[in-house]
Amino acid sequence: MTTSSNDTIIISLGGSLIVPDTVDASFLKEFKTLIESFVSEGKRFFIITGGGAPARTYQQGLSEVIDATSEEKDWIGIHTTRLNAHLVRLAFGELAHTDIILDPTDTVATDKPVVIGAGWKPGWSTDYDAVMFAETAGAKKVLNLSNIEYVYDKDPKKYDDAQKIESISWSDFRKLLPEEWDPGLNSPFDPIAAKKAEELGLEVGILNGKIENIRNYFEGKEFVGTVIGA
To answer: In the chain, pLDDT over 70 holds for what percent of residues?
Structure first.
């Protein structure tokens, strides 16, 4: 398939959208239909699935059994992303490449317009995987979809005066993040991925994963979310 960098979109699909509590079949159906509509316009998608709450549940459970290391907890999270990836790949049927891609530095030889990826190895979040997929595929945009609406200048759950951010530079955004990645970190974007995205000059959109909101982003309409590095 011949595509330009503008035709290839990387999506980091939050586990909170796939399995908020149980599998959200309604969301997956609508998401598939949405992606199909843009595939018909010549777009190609790399979709990397997150682990979400199930990953954190398993990590917490392991920590209650043993004094789990960061690497051990990371592996639990990675395998949760892979289960979610198989679910999403099967949901896309013939539209998707048959293999789940784990190594984001590998060039994928396929004519399928949808490629599904998952967690690779400890120390690599799915945000970082998504950024590396962008580098490998020559893409310029990464879309991070989750259940949050905006990035804030501080935690809105703790501070009543927290201000939402609609657009921000990478340098300013990275000041809001911790320095290091930690398995199960509840952050709008992995700090290591943010550093790499800045180096690559990527635009990253952090959006609420409601279907109409995603559509508005693609169509250049008003949407709920934060754009970094635009």
So the answer is: 93
Strand, coil or helix: 25: helix
- Per DSSP, the chain holds a count of helices (H) and strands (E) of 8, 10
Q: CA angle at residue 45 from 40 to 49, to 5 degrees? A: 135
d(CA 82, CA 59) in angstroms, rounded, equals 15
Tell me which amino acid residue 37 is: S
Burial bucket for residue 153 (CB in 10 Å: 0-12, 13-18, 19+): middle
* DSSP character at residue 139: -
Q: How far apart are CA 98 and CA 111, in angstroms?
A: 11
What is the chain's length? 230
Mark residue 44 as left, alpha or beta (left: phi above 0; alpha: psi -120 to 50; beta: remaining): beta
Could you tell me if residue 133 is left (phi over 0), alpha (psi between -120 and 50 degrees) or otherwise beta?
alpha
CA distance 125 to 186: 12
Please tell me the predicted confidence (pLDDT) of residue 124: 82
Residue 87: its H or E element: helix 70-92
104-137 pLDDT per residue, tens: 999 999 999 999 999 999 888 888 899 999 999 9
What is the per-residue pLDDT for 30?
A: 98
What whole-number distance in Å separates Cα of residue 157 and Cα of residue 150?
A: 13
H or E element in which residue 17 lies: helix 15-18
What's the rounded Cα separation, in Å, for the pair 144 and 187? 12
- Give the C-alpha separation, 217 to 16, whole Å: 20
Model-wide pTM > 0.70: yes
